[in-house]
Amino acid sequence: MGRTTRTRLAVALAALLVAQAGAWAQEITTTQDRALTQLQTKLAANPTSVKALRAVGLKLYELGRFQDSRPVLEQAQRLAPKDGIVALYSGMAAEQVKDFPAAKAAYTKYLEVGKTKKVRNQISARLVAMAKEELKEQARQAVANEQALRGAQVPGTTVAVLPFRCSCADTALLPLERGMADLVVSDLSRSSAIRVLERDRMQAIADEIRLAQTAQVDAGTAARAGKLIAAGRILNGQILQSAGQQRMDLAGAVVNTNSSNVESNPAAQGTIDALFDLEKAFVLNVFQQLGVVLTVAERQQFETRRVPSLQAFLAYSRGLMAEDAGRLDDAVRFFESARSLDPGFSQALVRAQSAAAARTGAAVTSATVTQGLRNSAEGQVVAAANRGSTNDVTLNLTLNNVVGDVNPTTTNTVQNNTNQSGGNNNTAPTNRDAASEKTSTDQPAQRVGQLTIVIKKP
Amino acid sequence: MKQILAPLALIAAAAGPLAAQGLGETSVITGPQYVNYKIGTGTGQKTVTQLSVPIAFIFPLTERFSFDISTSYADTRVSSAGVESSKISGLTDTQLRANLGLFDNTAVFTLGANIATGMYKVPDAQQEAAGQIGSDFLLYPVSSMGSGNALTGGVAVARTLGEWNLGFGGSFRYSSPFDAYQVQNDVLRFEPGSESRFRMGLDRSIGDGRISLGGTYSMFTDDKADSTTFATGARTMGQAAIYMPTSMGEWTLTAWDLYRAEGQVIGSTSPWENISNVNLAVGFSVGSVYVQPSAEGRFWMRDGEKAGMVGSGGMRLRFDVAGLSVNPSVTYSQGNVYPAGSVTSIDVSGLRASLLIRLR
């Protein structure tokens, strides 16, 4: 065969394959559309049928029509609040369109009523990962709607803490930017007179407005961040440490976000070795400047709080940095290291577990959930909807098993042997072979030889 | 070795039609199997080999009505001390079945026909191969090369009872006479008795898993071989299965027990017998390959005496290649059987292989 002929043949073959691929794609699309039409016809005939609503919602989700699937699934959820699969797909559809509050509510419902343990575990982890995505989305939304926030007055008792700036000669101390903010937020939260916003929420805003890239956070920038997070006051802190010196200073500015004015400048001096005493003095100074008086109980709680070792706290701070940067593997490692350096450091354990869950949750997708549902009763419901059926699949399986046994055919045997979930090509004998049974030729221990059948004819 | 490789190559070739699966609403399924049992040792060793290629077409015409057609090609050979003594090959009977869903698909009316497209008037040289595959103990994929025209009608109903699904059903099978064997110049005309069968099944979810239980009772009117009438023993079958996915893999435990009551065979009586089977499989992923090792034990009692015992170990794999799901499996069995009335056992060893290829 000549080279030209071979080339022509190859081109013809490629064209044939492309045409065939197109035909297959069209066939799949047609089948999918037909399944949806079947389900929609059933729903039109019985608009309050939970089975029909559920199946249409699931099918729309499978077709990637997330927004369309939501009202259908939500109606199904109203009618059948204990239907786990409806809750699960409501959550997944909501998450796809970034409606995180709705997704969170639906997922929480699934954790309550869902029946597939593997998927419940996936959703628990997904909720943790989603919380971080939700913070980012909220920050994006806040920045996008910043114009509308201008002039809005926020209560002064709501306080946020920006990540600290570390002007440290010892670069090993840099992670304290996150650790110190976390510690200050934790300590300020001991007072019931003010509402302190979570560090993670503030960090999301800081990331969104790229605060880390700003050389100096002035009062205007701090006020902007405060407005975006809906805090009346914002604490902008700094850590100062000079080369070769043990001395460490904490300096801050409390900015009123409504007026963009610096209201006070809390500060404290100490040494690296006594970092937690330094932080405590700084926080007390902040309380004082804010005019907050701790109750006796709050003061006692504040004074008797347990502090970790400095090394453990540095590891913990590195964990926060890694977590903020989305490096969850590193975050888990650092938090676990903090925990092993100071076994009593319970916050490190909490963070390690949370980061591990976020890491697991980040890997949860529609595909992994579908995989998790495989072989489960809930998975059968989804598979039926994808085929365009609203049948109660588990009942169908029961029925098919009975039918397969009262009227068995080779079809049952082949279906069982080729069962995707494993199958068993050694199933129980469903039929007798009357002729071999009567002639005893079915006996395996019978010796080889001529079969002799003696029949007395009348 | 050549004897094993040749059938395996045929299995692989026969798996090809699976590519047709998924065309429109019709399913085409096949699951070729190769089985080889060596019974006895030394010069008295008997080897029974079967290659079967079943094929089933399923037509779900509407959500309520479906029908399926199925048949098999089977090649069975019996050899003694390496010399082939009996061989039968060809198509088996064809089965047509229609299922009609009733009452929102919570009941099914089923009607089936067994069409005699298999092997009949089996000549002397093929009789041993045709008969050996009927064993309820060793279980060949194709257990009969032909059982005559027959009609089966039945109903099945399923209901939910709390957390349980309950299903029950019954059927009646009428079989017409057929020419089973040709012994020298005489044809043995055989007329199986009618069968009435009752089935009850229960299943429910347990956590992420599922448990199912079932029982079947079959009773028969008398069989006839030419003009001689025989009573056959009723069959009672119990089945149980538990599927449980865990962090240590997906576990499946299945068990069945078949009790065949006392009956008659040509020339004598057949005592009651009981066959029990337990299978444990665990499936897990190793990289992109799903691995499912399994272990199985089967025990045979005849008239209160040991009649046989077989232990098996198997491995099933599942992996994807070029958009196809490939599922090879292999099982090795070792055990013994006791000839009727003997206390001396005969060794049995077996190999079972299958290869399934399907569109994902």
Can you walk through the features of this model?
The complex is a heterodimer of chains A (458) and B (360). Chain A is of the alpha/beta class and 458 residues long. Chain A has a domain at 152-305: Rossmann fold (3-Layer(aba) Sandwich), CATH 3.40.50. In chain A, 61% of the residues lie in helices and 8% in strands. Chain A has helices at 3-45, 50-62, 66-79, 84-96, 100-113, 117-144, 146-149, 176-188, 199-208, 219-228, 275-290, 296-303, 310-324, 328-341, 346-362, 366-373, 377-387, 393-406, 410-417, 434-439, and strands at residues 158-161, 165-168, 195-196, 233-241, 247-256, 261-264, 267-271. In chain A, strands 1, 2, 3, 4, 5, 6 and 7 form a 7-stranded mixed sheet that branches. The termini of chain A are far apart. Chain B is mostly beta strands. Chain B has one domain: Porin (Beta Barrel), CATH 2.40.160. Chain B contains 2 helices and 24 strands. Chain B has a 16-stranded antiparallel β-barrel with strand order 2-3-4-6-7-8-9-12-13-16-17-20-21-22-23-24. At the A-B interface, helix 18, helix 19 and helix 20 of A face strand 2, strand 3, strand 4, strand 6 and strand 7 of B.
Can you give keywords for this protein?
heterodimer; A: 458 residues; alpha/beta; Rossmann fold; 7-stranded mixed sheet; 20 helices; 61% helix; B: 360 residues; mainly beta; Porin; 16-stranded antiparallel barrel; 4-stranded antiparallel sheet; 66% strand; disordered N terminus
Give a short synopsis of this structure.
Chain A is built from 20 helices and 7 strands.
Uncertain residue segments of chain B:
1-23
Main beta-sheet annotation of chain A = 7 strands, mixed
Would you give the CATH topology of the domain at 152-305 in chain A?
Rossmann fold
CATH architecture descriptor text of the domain at 152-305 in chain A: 3-Layer(aba) Sandwich
Q: What's the mean pLDDT score of chain A?
A: 85
- How many distinct domains of chain B? 1
Low-confidence stretches of chain A: none
Multimeric state:
heterodimer
**Beta content of chain B:** over 45%
> What structural class do helix, strand and pairing data of chain B support?
mainly beta
User: Over all CA atoms, what is the radius of gyration of chain B?
Assistant: 21 Å
Name the helicity range of chain A.
55-70%
